[in-house]
Amino acid sequence: MKKATKTIATFTLGLSILLGGTVAISPATTHAASASNVVSIGMHYMGTPYRYGSTTGNARTFDCSSFTQTVFKQAGVNLPRSSSAQSHVGRFVPRSQLQPGDLVFFYSPIHHVGIYIGNGKVLHTYGSPGVTISDMNSGWWSRNFATARRVL
């Protein structure tokens, strides 16, 4: 696996140089993407403050989609920036078949995204708690669930 990761990193760097761009390669972006890895990375950010419009690459504050984008990038999966755009990647998953690591979306049209962590819980960020865990099976989160996508 290490040889394949090194080959991919070398190819990406070479392609970036060829196209005149730059690429940053760090150990955090070379892990194999797995549900447990995604959840573990996301949990690392518990309590990180929420700020609407947080910039990509900033891990001091997040909005919902910069949070999921950052977590998945560190697991080796690139996601688009907005929750709406993220709701079109991967494949549709019925609510009854959610698995840890799935992206879950709220509102219609889509305005919020989080990471399903199992047992009806979603890891996400909003308002005052910042990165937190909420119960998707009750209250607002249950009423406003829209769809889910599997990208792993």
From TrEMBL:
Ranges of residues in domain NlpC/P60: 32-152
Signal peptide annotation: 1-32
UniProt KW Signal keyword: yes
Superkingdom in the source lineage: Bacteria
Entries under PANTHER family matching the protein: MUREIN DD-ENDOPEPTIDASE MEPH-RELATED (PTHR47053)
Similarity comment: family membership: Belongs to the peptidase C40 family.
This protein's name: C40 family peptidase
Organism: Paenibacillus aestuarii
